[in-house]
């Protein structure tokens, strides 16, 4: 059950102007490396989240009454209240903090990628180009939340597209905006029920499926479904986990010795 300690964010899609300030702030705060990108066809750049990009802004164009309309959609981890990624990770690399963030310890990651399979929103990304790859994703700026500060992306937004507060405040604010602005929004708070509820929620002027949101995510807690699905994988999962854990331990020891060497 949600407590007042738990935080959330309401993304109001009528306010976003697509400036990507949130994208830049996220990269900066999390010290993610810059990668060459290119525009091909639309302005969404990069096209999808990746191991160095925990949030992006989707540009959605459509014709409406003979006019070209453009909508902007910020994407990141939804921070599910009952996260499938946490339940799927066999070594406990993922965890939910008391502020509601789904954080992770990359050093514990063994690279099995069960979290990628389990996530209904296609969020965790693998460091494919690294010699010691782990999983990466938005962690709700857990370090900032722990010290009472809003996420870097929220703080950077010039149009206040994101409302940050306790999960109760966020839910109440979403309901208030819908109630007090008839016709401005569709009657759907995305994330309120999807996947059993998420800490990040959205309100929108047009149906979410038109903006590329998954609308087939069931309104139930997903961890049970996750384990049913993983349990059906016809391999000796336990043996694989032990093997991958040994590889990860060896890899992390190497990385640790390397960083100690650098400090000397
Ligand atoms: S959106 Fe995916 S990665 Fe984020 S908490 Fe939910 S299951 Fe985990
Ligand atoms: S909450 Fe933090 S990690 Fe997540 S998208 Fe915003 S700035 Fe990036
Ligand atoms: S900073 Fe705010 S207005 Fe700019 S792209 Fe991000 S959410 Fe939209």
- Per DSSP E runs of 2 or more residues, the count of β-strands stands at 9
Name the overall outline. Answer: globular
What amount of the residues lies in strands? 15-25%
CATH fold description: Alpha-Beta Plaits
Order of helices and strands: EHEEHEEHEEHHEHEHH
Q: In what order do the strands lie side by side in the largest sheet?
A: 8-1-9
Arithmetic mean of pLDDT: 87
Q: Identify the bound ligands.
A: iron/sulfur cluster
CATH class: Alpha Beta
Low-confidence segments, ≥5 residues, pLDDT <50?
239-264
Distance between the termini: 48 Å
The major β-sheet equals:
3 strands, mixed
The residue fraction in helices comes out at: 25-40%
Which CATH architecture?
A: 2-Layer Sandwich
Number of helices: 8
Structural class: alpha+beta
Subunit arrangement of the protein: single chain
Number of domains: 1
Taking all Cα atoms into account, the compactness measure Rg is 19 Å
Explain what you see:
The protein starts with 6 loop residues before the first strand and ends with a helix. It is built from eight helices and nine strands. It has helices at residues 21-29, 84-88, 114-118, 142-146, 152-156, 167-180, 223-231, 237-263, and strands at residues 7-12, 56-64, 67-75, 94-96, 102-104, 125-126, 135-136, 162-166, 200-203. The protein has a three-stranded mixed beta sheet, with helices on one face. A two-stranded antiparallel sheet has the order 2-3. With 264 residues, the protein is an alpha+beta fold. Bound molecules: iron/sulfur cluster (SF4) (3 copies).
